[in-house]
Specification:
The complex is a heterodimer of chains A (305) and B (390). Chain A has 305 residues and is α/β, with parallel strands linked by helices. In chain A, helix 3 runs parallel beside helix 4 and helix 6 packs parallel to helix 7. Chain A folds into two domains: 10-131, 3-Layer(aba) Sandwich (Rossmann fold), CATH 3.40.50.720; 150-303, Rossmann fold. Chain A is built from nine helices and 14 strands. In chain A, strands 3-4-2-1-5-6-7 form a seven-stranded mixed sheet, with helices on both faces. Chain A has a seven-stranded mixed sheet with strand order 9-8-11-10-12-13-14, sandwiched between helices. By secondary structure, chain B is an alpha+beta fold. Chain B folds into three domains: 21-93, ATP-grasp fold, A domain (Dna Ligase, domain 1, 2-Layer Sandwich), CATH 3.30.1490.20; 97-223, ATP-grasp fold, B domain (D-amino Acid Aminotransferase, Chain A, domain 1); 233-379, Succinyl-CoA synthetase domains (Rossmann fold). Chain B has helices at residues 5-14, 29-39, 66-76, 126-132, 150-159, 167-183, 220-223, 233-241, 259-271, 288-299, 318-332, 348-358, 369-386, and strands at 2-3, 24-26, 43-47, 60-63, 80-81, 84-85, 89-93, 97-108, 113-119, 137-142, 186-197, 202-204, 208-211, 244-247, 252-256, 278-281, 306-313, 338-345, 363-366. In chain B, strands 1, 8, 9, 10, 11, 12 and 13 form a seven-stranded antiparallel sheet that branches. Chain B has a four-stranded antiparallel sheet with strand order 2-7-3-4, with helices on one face. In chain B, strands 15-17-18-19 form a four-stranded parallel sheet, sandwiched between helices. The chains are: A alpha/beta (305), B alpha+beta (390).
Chain lengths: 305, 390
């Protein structure tokens, strides 16, 4: 078992240009059921490289081909509308790979997908799951791979992995694989300021998934989301082995390190550095590695110990 | 993208946000003097740099006459304010301040929308007000799918303690500011201070504006504005090339794909006993051209003694990276620094094969991240000891 993707995943790809085709073909070769592509002008044709029909809209892909998952690869100016189109079509899991989407677009998308409730929280129940944007996607090894994660570096197993960073996650997944440890599902949530699913949208799913016995989460400098994750785990899944890595131990304060939120703000109230997060998480019983290799080793030790 | 004050105010004017009378930009004292004479009234001469604390640093001066404006411009031009050298000043008719408030609109990742902040305590840093008298700061989350109307704007201002004669003007200003914030794809509109003039008008006396770089395709006029500040030259060049680059203090140049992996690479360089010279993320879909640009950028930092290229392939394919590295070396001619190139992931084997076959004297192929970091640190050290790069 796994979360978000499994053998029943039926994927429609929105955005079938060269990048979309390259990765959709890899996803298909991995065993993912790619059932359709969408393109505003090529509806009614066949997506030759994939051997599946092209529709004008995601709704047709749902009606005709039973699509339940979407991968969005359209250019940034059109991505927000593509996400909303997938949601309106009733797609349950929307994975947006596109990077460079304007933050106002994502604010509008998030608040449309997840309406604000009176108590200030967002309505998530019964709503589609959006992962990304600007993320590497999701893989449930052995079942389905949606996005750009290189599937060949991992295998089915019982560790759930969630991270803001794509390549860093591959690194850890790869090192776990070298030790013979596989993955239930790996979710790359992306590093944009507004993302559809944050750590606390994914980790409870892992905690509830019978096939996931341990969790690795990969955070980074900036904000204090990692501490919130730590508290949730301490309160709700204290028996689950959890290991974390926080990238940016050597990042200087006041400098943004690539991702929008990856900055230790000068004059902040504390908790934003990698060292602060490590200390806080360790106090909550979560082991924290200081580099990807050590993080993988900690997980290996927890599973074998 | 951050705008200078005068650019921010021009943007405000476009959306009908009341602000100071139109000023002019001067790059020389005589120019400032002539502009002040043309205005014929007392003026403010204000340093145009992308940083706060201009007032404290002596970068903002009231000038009663043109001679004073000349002297002020002389004093301010060339001033170093927190590492930003002043190259231009704004000369504008002075406004008489009766009361100072604080108002800002910003993007808030925690509340997934916009936030408006208002305080009756203006003219000082809002962080200070927030720390010392949090009850005097109204912070309200706004749903980006619901336009801000006058009733809501007014209630927010009232919540921040605004009452009486300024409510109407401030409400009108906030509604227009909000419309502009959304239309311009801004991530920050900060008005500090928002003032009531002695003749009773509510206006934005200052403008601190940031526009979302991802949305500039919708705003070619803003994208065309000159935002070159006294930035690090390499960082400006990187921005031009669409690369994420941060200059650091060490001697090992770092290139990786994905912000997290680059941060992790900095961490392992440090753990291997070295210091990274920079953060550089070539991003997704990096092809040969991008890699060549990245490499030439890193190598143009004279502090760099060795380079660690750390690529784990997803979108970025290992063969492209390998060709990019070799192509960049060709383009740069003789390079004295050596490159440890660590490839893994999509098409990594093809990439490593290309590197092995080329057998370039500057390239050391590697497979493991920690070992690669150690090699790069050793190469930097050896190069420093032998002095061969100087």
């Amino acid at each position: 078992m796994s979360i978000l993707l499994d053998a029943d995943t039926r994927l429609v790809v929105q955005g079938i240009g060269s990048q979309g085709t390259f990765h959709a073909k890899r996803n298909q070769a991995y065993g993912t059921q790619v059932v359709a592509g969408t393109h505003p002008k090529r509806g009614g044709t066949t997506w030759e490289e994939l051997g599946v029909p092209v529709f004008t809209t995601a709704a047709e892909a749902v009606a005709e081909q039973g699509a339940n998952t979407s991968m969005i690869m359209v250019p940034a100016p059109f991505a927000a509308d593509a996400i909303l189109e997938a949601a309106d079509a009733g797609i349950a899991t929307i994975v947006c790979i596109t990077e460079g989407i304007p933050v106002h677009d994502m604010a509008r998308v998030y608040n449309t997908l997840y309406p604000r409730q009176a108590d200030g929280t967002f309505l998530k129940e019964g709503r589609p799951v959006l992962v990304g944007p600007n993320c590497p996607g999701i893989i449930s090894p052995g079942a389905a791979n949606v996005g750009i994660i290189p599937g060949e570096i991992t295998s089915p197993g019982n560790v759930g992995l969630v991270s803001r960073s794509g390549t860093l996650t591959y690194q850890i997944m790869y090192e776990l694989a070298q030790a013979g440890i596989g993955i239930s599902t790996c979710v790359g949530i992306g590093g944009d300021p507004i993302i559809g699913s944050d750590f606390l949208d994914i980790i409870p799913r892992f905690a509830a998934d019978p096939a996931t016995e341990a969790i690795v989460f990969v955070g980074e400098i900036g904000g204090t989301e990692e501490q919130r994750v730590g508290r949730w785990i301490a309160d709700n899944a204290a028996d689950t082995p959890v290991v974390a890595y926080v990238a940016g131990f050597t990042a200087p304060p006041g400098r943004q390190m690539g991702h929008a939120g990856a900055i230790v703000r000068e004059g902040s109230e504390g908790g934003e550095t990698a060292a602060d997060k490590k200390t806080a998480l360790e106090a909550m019983g979560i082991a924290v590695g200081t580099n990807p290799t050590e993080t993988a080793e900690l997980m290996i030790a927890r599973l074998r110990g | 993208m951050d705008l200078l004050e005068h650019q921010g105010k021009d943007l405000f004017r476009r959306y009908g946000v009341p602000t100071t009378p139109q000023g002019k930009v001067a790059t020389a004292p005589a120019e400032a003097e002539a502009q002040a004479a043309e205005f014929g009234v007392p003026v403010m001469v204000k340093a145009q740099v992308l940083t706060g604390g201009r007032g404290k640093a002596g970068g903002v001066r009231y000038c009663a006459d043109p001679a004073a404006a000349r002297a002020a411009a002389e004093a301010i031009l060339g001033l170093d304010i927190k590492g930003h050298v002043v190259r231009q000043v704004l000369v504008e008719p002075a406004s008489d301040i009766a009361v100072e408030y604080y108002l800002s609109l910003l993007h808030d990742r925690v509340s997934k929308g916009y936030k408006v902040i208002f305080s009756t305590e203006g003219g000082i840093e809002i962080e200070t007000v927030n720390r010392e008298t949090p009850e005097k700061v109204a912070k309200v989350d706004l749903d980006p799918t619901v336009p801000l109307d006058a009733d809501r704007a007014r209630s927010i201002l009232e919540q921040g303690g605004l009452a009486g004669e300024d409510l109407d003007g401030a409400t009108d200003l906030l509604v227009k500011l909000y419309a502009g914030f959304v239309d311009a794809d801004a991530t920050l509109f900060e008005v500090n201070p928002l003032i009531r003039t002695t003749d009773g008008r509510v206006i934005a006396l200052d403008a601190k504006v940031s526009i979302d770089g991802n949305a500039l395709f919708r705003h070619p006029d803003i994208a065309a504005l000159d935002d070159t500040d006294a930035d690090d030259g390499l960082e400006a060049r990187a921005q031009e090339a669409g690369l994420q680059y941060v200059k650091l203090d060490g001697e090992v140049g770092v290139i990786g794909n994905g912000a997290g992996l680059v941060m992790a690479t900095l961490d392992v360089v440090s753990q291997a006993g070295g210091r990274a010279a920079n953060f550089l993320d070539v991003g997704g879909g990096a092809d040969a051209d991008r890699m060549a640009e990245a490499l030439s950028l890193v190598l143009s930092d004279p502090q760099v003694r060795s380079v660690l290229v750390n690529i784990f392939g997803g979108i970025t394919r290992g063969d492209e990276v390998a060709r990019g590295v070799l192509g960049a070396l060709d383009r740069l001619g003789s390079v004295s620094q050596r490159l440890v190139v660590r490839l893994d992931g999509t098409n990594a084997e093809e990439g490593r094969a290309i590197l092995t076959e080329a057998a370039h004297p500057s390239v050391v192929p590697a497979a493991q991240m920690l070992a690669a970091a150690q090699q790069a640190v050793e190469l930097a050290r050896a190069s420093t000891t032998s002095g061969s790069t100087s």
